[in-house]
Write a structure and sequence with these properties.
It holds the Pfam family Epimerase. This is NAD(P)-dependent oxidoreductase. It comes from Sulfitobacter sabulilitoris. InterPro entries: Epimerase_deHydtase, NAD(P)-bd_dom_sf. By secondary structure, this protein is of the alpha/beta class. The protein has a single domain, classed as NAD(P)-binding Rossmann-like Domain (Rossmann fold, 3-Layer(aba) Sandwich). The chain is 34% helix and 15% strand. It has eight helices and nine strands. A seven-stranded parallel beta sheet has the order 3-2-1-4-5-6-9, sandwiched between helices. Helix 1 packs across helix 6, helix 2 packs parallel to helix 3 and helix 3 packs parallel to helix 4. The radius of gyration is 19 Å and the shape is globular. The N and C termini lie far apart (42 Å).
């Protein structure tokens, strides 16, 4: 596929692009900073500028596309990851502005260019737990896509707004648009660096609902979205199968969630952040995890 990828120079994006390249796809990375990776074309552009998004959406990716003399080919898919990545990096209103206006511009340009598939990054924060003031628990466990999205911070608010925007574009155009509520992204080197601390103090993982997604499995998730047609508008939780601490599920529940209802049984190491929908509709099957990197 010929894919336009926004935000591919970031932590998550560069791993997803590497996965897509390994799958044989052609990728144009649209970012404020180029990605130094063999096989990737880069375009410096600002997602908050509608004109720039319309330009890159209907333009060549590299000089080799000039050779056939048949004009600009259409993108087969857009993967939109570009964003202010969390609160406390930019002013709150700027975080909300960049993330919402940027997403609107990308969706608008993509659908008007006739791109048939759009995958965009939403977030675990939409459930209102990650950046809550104080302790906030899920309404039930495991957290699935039907759980209420009630954020109280500008980043999570922007992600909920983006989901509403994406649903509106899908309704108007019929384009397949899939949103990914991505949990805490972990790169391979972070297991040895960070997880011993999480094992020593499991409370550090409370805001992430004790879940995570390996960056390489996030690449697989995006690829599965690109391969699966006809779902219309859908959102998917994206997490690995297991939770991220050495406690058992009953121990985590007793310590952190004693009064939270369970909608089903959860295995001793199973994630509280359900990926069942992605498995059922997309065939998602995580391969990596911290237990293969850390010896207890």
């Amino acid at each position: 596929m010929r894919i336009l990828f926004t935000g591919g120079s970031g932590k998550a994006g560069r791993h997803v692009i590497a996965y897509l390249l390994d799958q044989g796809h052609q990728v144009l990375n649209v970012d404020l900073h180029p990605l130094d990776m063999e096989g990737v074309h880069n375009r410096i552009a600002d997602i908050t500028d509608a004109g720039q998004m319309f330009d890159v959406m209907q333009n060549y990716t590299g000089l080799e596309e000039l050779e056939p003399g048949t004009g600009v080919p259409r993108f087969d898919a857009v993967v939109h990851f570009a964003a202010i990545p969390r609160v406390m990096i930019r002013a709150d209103n700027e975080c909300f502005r960049v993330n919402t206006i940027g997403t609107y511009n990308v969706l608008d340009a993509a659908t008007k260019a006739g791109v048939p598939k759009i995958v965009f990054a939403s977030s675990e924060t939409t459930y209102g737990i990650c950046f809550a003031d104080g302790t906030r628990r899920p309404e039930y466990l495991p957290v699935d896509e039907d759980h209420p999205t009630e954020p109280e911070d500008s980043y999570a608010m922007s992600k909920v707004a983006n989901e509403v925007t994406a649903r509106g574009f899908q309704r108007r155009t019929g384009t397949d648009i899939y949103g990914l509520r991505i949990n805490n992204v972990i790169e391979p080197h972070e297991y040895a660096r960070d997880f011993p601390t999480y094992i020593a103090d499991p409370s550090l993982r409370r805001r992430n609902i004790f879940a995570y997604i390996d960056a390489r499995d996030l690449g697989q998730m995006v690829a599965r979205c690109l391969q699966t047609d006809g779902l219309g508008y859908e959102v998917f939780n994206v997490a690995n199968d297991d939770h991220s601490v050495a406690l058992t599920t009953p121990e985590i529940i007793a310590r952190f969630y004693p009064d939270v209802p369970l909608t089903r049984e959860i295995g001793d190491t199973q994630s509280f952040y359900s990926n069942a929908k992605a498995k059922r509709l997309l065939g998602f099957a995580p391969h990596y995890g911290w237990r293969g990197h850390i010896t207890l």
